[in-house]
Fold this sequence. Notes:
- The chain folds into 2 domains: 10-187, Aminopeptidase, CATH 3.40.630.30; 204-436, Rossmann fold, CATH 3.40.50.150.
- It is 30% helix and 30% strand.
- It has helices spanning 25-32, 35-41, 49-64, 111-125, 142-150, 181-186, 202-208, 210-218, 224-234, 253-260, 272-281, 317-327, 341-345, 389-398; strands at residues 10-11, 15-18, 68-75, 81-89, 95-102, 132-137, 154-165, 168-178, 190-195, 244-247, 265-269, 286-289, 302-308, 328-339, 347-348, 357-358, 367-375, 378-386, 402-407, 430-436.
- Strands 1-2-3-4-5-6-8-7 form an 8-stranded mixed beta sheet, with helices on both faces. A 7-stranded mixed beta sheet has the order 12-11-10-13-14-20-19, with helices on both faces.
- Helix 4 crosses helix 5 (142-150).
- The structure holds S-adenosylmethionine (SAM).
Amino acid sequence: MPLSYPEPPLTDDVVILRPWELKDLPVLEEASCDEYVSLVEQLPVPFDARRGQDWIARKHATLSGGDGCELAIAERESGDAIGGIGFVFRHVPGTAEAGYWIVERRRRQGFASCALEIFSRWALTSGGGVVRMQATVEPWNLASQRVLAKAGFLQEGRLRSYASWRGRREDVFMYSLLAEDLELTGVAGSRVTRTRPSSVDLGAAWEENASAFIAWARTPNHDSYWQFHRDVFLELLPPRGRRTLDLGCGEGRLSRDLKRLGHDIVGIDGSPTMVAAARDADAEIEVQLADAAALPFADGEFDLVVAFMSLQDIDDFAGAVRESARVLEAGGRLCLAIVHPLSSAGRFEGATADSVFTIAGSYLDHSYYADNVVRDGLEIDFVSAHRPLQDYTEALANAGLLIERLREPALPEYAITREHSRRWQRLPIFLHARALKP
Ligand SMILES: C[S@@+](CC[C@H](N)C(=O)[O-])C[C@H]1O[C@@H](n2cnc3c(N)ncnc32)[C@H](O)[C@@H]1O
């Protein structure tokens, strides 16, 4: 099928991608002042309207000549162009090379990611002959690498001395996206975007995300809890005893499961919305609004404390461990599950089972991360702290607890619902520990 402009124009909530028009000359003039964009886009410098019109005519000729497709990225609200996106075919049939740019004043606002995502999906699925969409990016251009990763592109490797910039040869990274990756990375169904804020009030962040979490946690089979994590964690627990505390119980799903298993269970959480939801779901379970680092219980009231996926979300996690030890009786246990520190330190570069895992910053330093996860129509921000493993083992030791078990459960085969989950059969996504108060 010959190439034609997408009709109706590609759009989402943020951008609309449409053919270039003469009314876009002012934004081209603006872009011509950007050294990098003007070079890559071969914009006239100094800019004048006549050469700007020629530039627009060349963009339309790309399509009519069957060489590719080039569009303006416009803001959906105003229709004003703020950048450009396109692909041109390379020598191997079916291979198309993508490029995109945004004017400086509108960068870092997510426009490029939105545009690349809908443009790539269209290019690979509209029958225009694109089988492989590729893009090259300079190692220093981290913003562009983030845009590609967010749109589901996989980094394939480094091409040495491939480009030339300011008279110097430069390496580039080669990225690609295939039609089958759209399902793998879930460009449509599932997506994780990680940012690293410099500081966060974790308690406030969880209250803010509470409604999203309640919907997330209560949708049947939606997350790892239902798929395997609960069952693997339950194997770590000692036989049920006198009284169990669920520390950071959230909307209460584990408390309810433990009650069914015969535990006399009490939950605490720092988020009023979570506590209300937990009480609402089972009025028989005692749930208190409390800071895990200042528990409203007497010494030795419990023989089991479970902290399931909560310590990485608690500001004073060492205080929470200390308080857990205090409210345990001698011989009691703290059982915890957290995001594995390896997983919070780095990320996979691609979606295939063997993709490379990279730690770009420091594993040893404390940091924060916010994972925006979109899956099957639900969206949530998981805001957490990364701490190296030693921070947790020291907190346990300083609280007088002895580690009995330290486990790194691999994703069981039955929990693989998407191909990209296989990556977590090579590296641990969660860490479990059981500690004894002697
Ligand atoms: C990922 S959720 C886990 C909830 C629950 N354990 C589950 O797995 O469904 C983390 C929970 O930790 C709670 N939390 C964060 N900081 C806290 C604090 N200082 N004290 C008590 N709970 C806290 C949050 O409100 C949130 O409910």
